[in-house]
Design a protein that fits this description.
Structural class: alpha/beta
Radius of gyration: 24 Å
Function: Involved in the regulation of mitochondrial distribution and morphology. Required for mitochondrial fusion and mitochondrial network formation.
Subcellular location: Cytoplasm; Mitochondrion
GO cellular component, one term: mitochondrion
Protein name: Protein misato homolog 1
Number of helices: 14
Helix content: 25-40%
CATH topology of the largest domain: Rossmann fold
Family: Belongs to the misato family.
Strand content: 15-25%
CATH superfamily of the largest domain: Tubulin/FtsZ, GTPase domain
Number of strands: 15
Length: about 550
Amino acid sequence: MAGGAREVLTLQLGHFAGFVGAHWWNQQDAALGRATDAKEPPGELCPDVLYRTGRTLHGQETYTPRLILMDLKGSLSSLKEEGGLYKDKQLDAAIAWQGKLTTHKEELYPKNPYLQDFLSAEGVLCSDGVWRVKSIPNDKGPPPLTTSTTPTPLIPTEGSIRVWSDFLRVHLHPRSICMIQKYNHDGEAGRLEAFGQGEGVLKEPKYQEELEDRLHFYVEECDYLQGFQILCDLHDGFSGVGAKAAEMLQDEYSGRGIITWGLLPGPYHRGEARRNIYRLLNTAFGLVHLTAHSSLVCPLSLDGSLGLRPGPPVNFPYLHYDATLPFHCSAILATALDTFTAPYRLCSSPVSMVQLADMLSFCGKKVVTAGATIPFPLAPGQSLPDSLMQLGGATPWTPLSACGDLSGTRCFAQSVVLRGIDRACHTSQLTPGTPPPSSLHACTTGEEVLAQYLQQQQPRVMSSSHLLLTPCRVVPPYPHLFSSCSPLVESIPVFGALCSSSSLHRALEALAGDLTKLDLRRWASFMDAGVEHDDVAELLQELRSLAQCYQDGD
C-alpha cells in the first residue's frame, strides 16, 4: 500500500450498522473529493487505511472500501450484491454451454429517486450505462469532474429512505456484500432476532467459509494490516454474528487490533415487550462475548439507557434530529465515529489500533464510552481558548453510549479528538501587554491549549489528544440537522472522546439487574435459538465481573 499505510479492514454486520456505515462511507467519499482540491491543506487522514485500489475488467482503476458487510435477504433494495463496478456484460455472454438457455429474472426494486437524481447531477453516468467512480487521490486516477456553477444539493427526503442502500453513494467491491439468505429483512417471519441464531449463522460451513474467503482476499493484499473495526448491531441476532466474527478474527489474526462498535438504534418500542426483552438479552450477550474477543468495545446509541428503563434520547444543543429515524440517528453516530477513529487513520504519527486499545483498556476495562459535541461551537472571531472556557467545568460532550447521566462519574483514561478548527483560531490573539484571561489564553499552540484544557477538566486522567484541521464532511445525502446554520453546510468541527468511565459500573450493573428480573420461561423462543439456562447464569456473572472493573476508586 502506497506510503506504508497501516490498513484496516471494516466489518459491517446488521441493518442499522448498514445505516451508520452508509453515512460513514459517504463521508469518506466526500473527503476524497476534497483531497484533490489544490486549495485544501495537505491531507491529515490517510484514505489508504480504509480503501484499496483495484482494476475493473475494462482496465479502469478503482478505489473502493476495504469492507465486508453482512445483511439479510431483502435489505439491498436496488443495490446489486456483486456491486456495479466489475460486471462485464460481454463476458457474461461468453458461456461454454451451447444449448438452449432459459433466463429467470427477479423483480427489480426501483432505485431511490435521490440516487437517480444524484447520478444525473454528478455527471458521471456514462453512455455505456456505467457509473464511473470518482477520481482517486494522490494522483491515482484522472482529475475530478468540475462545473462552473455549484449544483443545488440533493438531500433525500426521510420518506424516501427505506434501507441504507437508498442513500449509499459509494461503489463497493464484489467481495464486500455477503447476504444471509436464510433470514428475512422484511415481514414478521424468518427474522434474525436472537443472539443464538446469529452465532448459529457463522457456525454453518456455508457462511463461515464465505466470510473466511472474503477475509483472506482482503487481508492477503495488505502490506501492514493493523487490525479490524467491526460495526455490529447489538439489539438483534447480529450481536451473535458479531461475537462469532470477532472470535474468528481473534483466532486467526492474533496480535491485530479488533475494535468493535456495538450499535443500538433508538428509541425503545414502548408497548412491544417481546422486542424490548430480546433487545435487552441480545445487548447483554453481545457486550460480554464481543468484549471477550475484541481489543476494545464501545456501545454507540442515542438512547439514554442500555436497560429496560429507556431514558429520553440524548440532546445536542446545535442539532435538530428525529430519534425515531434511523437515517438521522445513524448520521450522528457516523460523524462521531469518523472522529473517534481519526488517531489510527493519521498520515503522520498515527496511534495504532492496538496502542489505542492498550491505553484505554488497562486493568480489564475493555469496554469504553463515547461522547461528542456535534458541531463544536466556535463563533466567528472566537479563539479556541475562548470557546473552551465558555464550555465551563461541565463535561463538554453529549454521551453516546447509553450509560445514563454522567454526573459524578470518573474517567480513568481517554482519547480525545478535536477537528475542523482553523489554525488561525488555535491560540488567543491578545494585543501585546494584555494579561491572558486564563491559562489557556497563554498557550502558544493549539495542541497545548487542548492538552491544558483536558488536564484542568480531569487532572488525574491519562489523556491522548489530537487537534486536526480537517473538519467532518456533511454534504448530501447527510440530513440537514443543523439548527442555526444555512442549509448549505458542507463541513463541521467536531469534538469527540472515548473514555474508560466509572459510568459503566452503574450501566452494566443495571443491565445485570434487569436480566435477573426476567422470567426466562416466558421467553423460551429466545432460549430455543441456541442459549442454555447455564449460559444466562454465566452471562450474569461475567457482566458483574466486568462492571466491577469500573467501580470508582478501583
